[in-house]
Design a protein that fits this description.
This protein has about 375 residues and is of the alpha+beta class. Helices cover about 15% and strands about 30% of the residues. The chain has two domains: about 230 residues, Rel homology domain (RHD), DNA-binding domain (Immunoglobulin-like), CATH 2.60.40; about 130 residues, Immunoglobulins (Immunoglobulin-like), CATH 2.60.40.10. It is built from four helices and 24 strands. Strands 5, 7, 8, 11, 12, 13 and 14 form a seven-stranded antiparallel sheet that branches. Strands 16, 18, 19, 22, 23 and 24 form a six-stranded mixed sheet that branches. It has a four-stranded antiparallel sheet with strand order 1-9-4-2, with no helix packed on it. α3 packs across α4.
Amino acid sequence: MKLEQNSNTSIKSLDDALETIDTVEHCKEENDTGTMHLGSDRDTLGTASVESENIQTAPYIKIIEQPASKAVQFRYRNEDRGISIIPGVNSTRAKKTYPSIQIEGYEGSVAVVVSCVAKDSPYKPHPHQLVGNDFCKYGCYRAKIPPESRKVIFGHLGIQRVKRSEIEEALEMKEKKGVDPYKTGFSHKVTPIDIDMNVVRLCFEVYREGTTKGLFDVPFQPVVSDPIYNKKALSKLVIVDLSSNYCNVEGGKQIILLCDKVPKEDVQVRFFEKQTGWKCQATIKNIHRQVAISFTAPPYHNFDVNDSVPVFVELFRPSNGDISNAFPFVFHPKKSGTKLRREKKYTYDIRDNKTYKEIQTASIEHGEHISNNKS
């Protein structure tokens, strides 16, 4: 760990502090005296930092450098290549930066704890471990910070990937040591299939001394970083197939798109027409296991067409602008009646082979156009 002034700090009493936090929470639930400010404002943290006006005069944690979201590979313990260090979002080859926090509104010594939590609120403890230096223990980073250091830079942290078969064991270890920033519990350990193993957030906790000297058991409100995605899991965007490749110009049809793995929070389904430049984003209803996207087809921009209009569907990744292959799609003229819709599908799929070949050719041309733009 790099501190603004002094990095040779002790972690004395931090083990006891972690276990004491769990005990204090239990007492608060039974007695509810209100004397200890612990769990009440932890429930709904919607941003990665906490503004001072929202918590009045209470000390708080401010994230001043977010981790880079797609620059880290989650590696298993037995991999020979070592850990992949988490860089800061502003890190470059010329100037390296790292995730950093600022401690505001408090001048004394504090204990800092950083752990991995799930991407979605209420931010349950994640089985993946933080590793990288002597301050990492029980899968999290823990260190005592002296009064003269208000800025903490985490310069040697990596994410160690846990196997599916080890999820329950990893979470039980964190449960035993009280590593549960938002007091969500550990019921998710019995359903490991529901845990997304390719994305985590860093949760930053700070504790100050309470009435017992040397015991850091009074917490600030924790904050979470932006999501960190496993770099290796971010495969190229590819549309494999559509459950249906036609729709009425009014849109609204439910369609399932099969694809290679995509992160749920970083993908869009877009319709576009090459000739006119029209583009429209579809409404995604659900993403199943990162490989199937259920969406609603948007309306075409012109309802008064007399012939079928060939367009395309593509996947788009907002974070870095990646675009998938373009898949052919057709908007049919506005007609009513089940019989007419079925007849049109039959005509398009089988009889009108020329139209289908023209769309396929246009799709290839679009793909080459994208490739040329990127090169």
